[in-house]
Design goal:
alpha+beta, 2 domains, four-stranded antiparallel beta sheet, Alpha-Beta Plaits, 4 strands, about 40% helix, single chain, DNA-binding
């Protein structure tokens, strides 16, 4: 269920998404308010689950994780035990940045970050050793055109 946000809440969220490390004073100045009301709104948005987490974004390339693969997974098994095992395997793999269950011909899509194709193959071998899948297709991203964590608020 969506939380009702007014224009000031949205300005605060845009500032936090741009840089959550900026001071409360800076945020208040930029959104045209004072510190106490801004702090109270941030606290309420945290409590309501609008602000889920605060984190640092790292550069994959600077860390040697230059290969981004999108992995399409089809399975012939759809029972709860298989799904729980598959999800557990994905949760345990730090290479998996995102995992989505899909409608349509493909059951799951994974976003994987690794150093290179050999590292992807190691991931692939470990995955199929732990859980049975019908078909896997890996797509190497040649160029990241747009990537953002900023939501349109």
């Amino acid at each position: 269920m969506a939380v009702a946000l007014d224009a000031l809440d949205r300005r605060i969220l845009r500032e936090l998404q741009a840089d959550c490390s900026q001071s409360l004073e800076d945020i208040a100045r930029k959104v045209g308010s004072s510190k106490t009301p801004v702090w109270n709104r941030i606290r309420k948005m945290r409590e309501a689950g609008v602000i889920a987490a605060e984190t640092v974004l790292l550069s994959p390339e600077a860390l040697g994780l230059e290969a981004c693969f999108f992995v399409l997974v089809r399975t012939s098994e759809h029972d709860a035990d298989w799904q729980a095992r598959f999800l557990s395997v994905l949760q345990a793999r730090p290479e998996v940045l995102e995992a989505h269950r899909l409608a349509g011909d493909i059951d799951y899509i994974l976003k994987i970050r690794v150093a290179n194709a050999r590292a992807y193959d190691s991931f692939y071998q470990a995955l199929i050793a732990e859980v049975r899948v019908f078909e896997i297709t890996a797509l190497l991203s040649m160029e990241e055109i747009k990537s953002t964590t900023v939501l349109p608020v």
